[in-house]
Structure formats: C-alpha cells, structure tokens
Amino acid sequence: MQTLKVYVGVFAAQGYLQAFLSDFSAPAYTDTSVQDIYVNHYGVYTLSFATASPNQTLKVRFKANAIYDATFGSVILSAVSLSGFVPPHAVVLLNPAWNNGTFNFSFVTQSNATHVAEYTDALAPAFWQPLTNFTGDGTLATIFDFPVPSSKRMYRVGTH
Question: Distance (Å, rounded) from C-alpha 23 to C-alpha 145?
Fold first, then answer.
C-alpha cells in the first residue's frame, strides 16, 4: 500500500481532481470540493492505493472545473509526496544539492539498465529535456546540471 498526498490550490475557481489506476483495477476517484469565488483556497488530497498487477501506475490530474474570474481565476498543483512501499526497482533521488551554481543529485543505478535523467522548467505542460543517459552498474551515480538558468527546475530519472 502506498499513500500519495496531492497539494492543490485555487483562486476564483473550482478544481477538479481525478485519480485512477492504469489497469483500472479500482474505480476512478473524482472530487470538486476545492473551490472559492474570491480568495485563495488550498487543499490536500490523501490517496491510499495498491495496484492489482505489477508495473501499474496511479494517474492523477488536477484541472479547472470552473473559472469564476476570467482574468485572475486559476488552479495550481503545488506538490505531491509519496510514502509507503517502494518497489525494488524504483529510482529514488538522493542528496540534492547546490554547489557553486551547479545542481546535483544521486541515485543507485541498476546493473545493465539504461537510466535517462531529464529536466523541465515548467510542469504545465511538462516538456522534459534529456540531461544524460547511461547504463547502470549497481553503484551510486551523481548527476550534475550546470548552469541552471531557472530557479524552478524539476528532474526525473527513468530506467529502461
């Protein structure tokens, strides 16, 4: 069992959250309770889930269901956190740090697996750019990004 916390907000809008498993082994969850007409309103969704078969994922969307102010109305997906069981081949990013204008992080590689590190400066919509790729050997790898032009850069590592 894993628990995903999804942190959201709205201003002059109503949010629409949808969550479902990629194998559709459970009913989809939807909610429109995060809303406010005149001020900022924030919410946290706590989703506990487990997949019925291996290699399945939880898909989560948060978007506007209604905009009450055409100029300033907005919805935001602020952050997510995942806790619980971590699959044996999951990539966990370790030791993120800034050092003299360079951002770096580490992760334990899988032997003979191809790892692809990517970054994006915006999640809406996400456009992931390759940073590096290499074949793992079961040791700790450190990825460096220099120079980082944006103060809001996100990273991910895929394993194939």
Answer: 35
Strand partners, 76: 9
Q: Are 38 and 98 in contact (CB under 8 A)?
A: no
Do 69 and 17 have their domain in common?
Answer: yes
pLDDT for residue 86 is more than 70: no
What is the value of pTM for the model shown?
Answer: 0.53
CA angle 19, 64, 30 (to 5 degrees): 25
What number of CA atoms fall less than 13 Å from residue 73's CA on the CB side?
16
Domain that holds residue 54: 2-84
Sign of CA dihedral 29, 33, 39, 40: negative
Angstrom distance (rounded) from CA 71 to CA 129: 31
Q: To the nearest whole number, what is the mean pLDDT of the chain?
A: 88
Q: Could you tell me the CATH number of the domain that includes residue 124?
A: 2.60.40
Paired tokens of 45: 């969704």
Two structure tokens written together for 69: 């102010």
Residue 145 lies in a domain: yes
Task: Report the first-to-last Cα separation within the chain, whole angstroms.
Answer: 24
Helix intervals (H) in 11-97: none
